[in-house]
Design a protein that fits this description.
Layout (H helix, E strand, L loop, with lengths): L20 E7 L3 E8 L7 E7 L6 H9 L4 E8 L2 E3 L2 E3 L9 H8 L3 E6 H7 L9 E3 L12 E6 L3 E7 L5 E4 L12 H11 L13 H14 L9 H7 L4 H25 L3 E4 L8 H4 L3 H7 L5 H4 L4 E4 L4 H12 L5
Parallel strand pairs: 1-4, 4-7, 9-12, 12-13
Antiparallel strand pairs: 1-2, 2-3, 5-6, 8-13, 9-10, 10-11
Helix pairs in contact: 1-2, 3-11, 4-5, 5-7, 7-9
């Protein structure tokens, strides 16, 4: 478990034993982020902690460790994947997830799994203006809904938020949809990636691991030997390494194209770009390549010019969304 990141408010766990605490969690392929809320209180997140998923045998052990010594009743867990009965379908987690085994192993009365970007979308109404950076000239939308929320991390997640009483969220598996090339370079990359797999989806390029797939393909195309072993090293080298820089520029342009496609498909009126990868490459997202590809949609360009795209700078979106889901789906919410 890591230390609490700088700048994140913590709570000294006051004596509120007469209240029921609910764990809220955001579980990705690399890290699990946890906090708790009071079941009859607001959405304030207490006692934020971060766990490295690979250091724990299963989700239950993380929840059990977090709840040790405090009276937690249940947990809302935002997690990537699709729930089929008791089993979560996800290719990016280090372990399998069963709802009942997780509940029993964590020692909780109940556990609710929701799609990670369903949670992020639920957090959209709570976003403060100072957590948003515009990627488009347009910053005004005629309506707040439908809102497309998308982000590359260990995978590529997306959901659509639709206002109402209560609001609705449409979770998606956009990361598993086919990756489409939009120029000659991307066609060459697609051809190379298809040599090693029968099906190429968006996550194979537009994710943290996908960023490295993209880098290795560009090294192959440029007859160069890969010099970086992971995405962190790649991003750090971009200022002085031409291939690392080209990788990030290509990534951001391709991401812009996919975001534009999805905005058209879902009829979005505003777009929020989140995800762990985007937090580390803001200068590349804002240099114009993302915007040009986002708007390069033929007759739909004029429509997309009226759809603002915001980059979200908030480290607890998943937790806020899990808390919002709990409020909306319980009698007290």
């Amino acid at each position: 478990m890591s230390k609490v990141p700088a700048g994140v408010p913590t709570d000294p766990t006051p004596d509120v034993s007469t209240l029921t605490r609910v764990i809220v969690a955001d579980v990705g392929g690399t890290y699990a982020r946890l906090g708790w809320i009071q079941s009859d209180g607001g959405n304030e997140i207490h006692d934020y902690r971060r766990y490295a998923c690979a250091e724990h045998p299963d989700l239950a052990s993380i929840l059990h460790d977090y709840a040790a010594g405090m009276p937690c009743h249940g947990a809302v867990v935002a997690i990537a994947g699709v729930l089929e009965g008791d089993r979560l379908i996800n290719s990016n987690l280090p372990w399998a997830v069963s709802v009942e085994q997780t509940r029993a192993g964590a020692g909780l009365a109940w556990v609710q799994l929701i799609n990670d970007f369903e949670a992020v979308a639920n957090a959209v109404p709570t976003l403060a203006p100072d957590t948003l950076s515009s990627l488009t000239p347009s910053t005004v939308s005629t309506t707040a809904s439908p809102a497309l929320v998308i982000g590359p991390g260990t995978g590529l997640g997306a959901a659509v938020w639709i206002e109402g009483q209560p609001p609705r969220v449409l979770p998606t598996e956009v990361g598993q949809a086919s990756l489409a090339a939009g120029n000659a370079l991307e066609l060459d990359i697609v051809r190379r990636l298809l040599k090693d797999r029968p099906y190429l989806h968006n996550e194979h390029v537009l994710s943290g691991p996908g960023l490295m797939n993209l880098y290795r393909c560009l090294c192959d195309l440029r007859a160069a030997t890969p010099a970086h072993a992971d995405a962190g090293a790649l991003v750090a080298a971009a200022a002085s390494d031409a291939l690392a820089r080209e990788t990030l520029e290509t990534f951001c342009g391709w991401l812009g194209s996919v975001v534009g496609d999805l905005a058209i498909i879902f009829g979005a009126r505003v777009v929020y770009l989140a995800g762990g990868v985007t937090a580390h490459i803001p200068q590349f997202l804002h240099d114009g390549r993302f915007l040009r590809r986002y708007l390069n949609k033929g007759v739909m360009t004029e429509q997309l010019e009226r759809v603002p795209v915001w980059r979200v700078e908030h480290g607890q979106l998943g937790l806020l969304g899990a808390a919002a889901w709990y409020r909306q789906n319980t009698k007290g919410g």
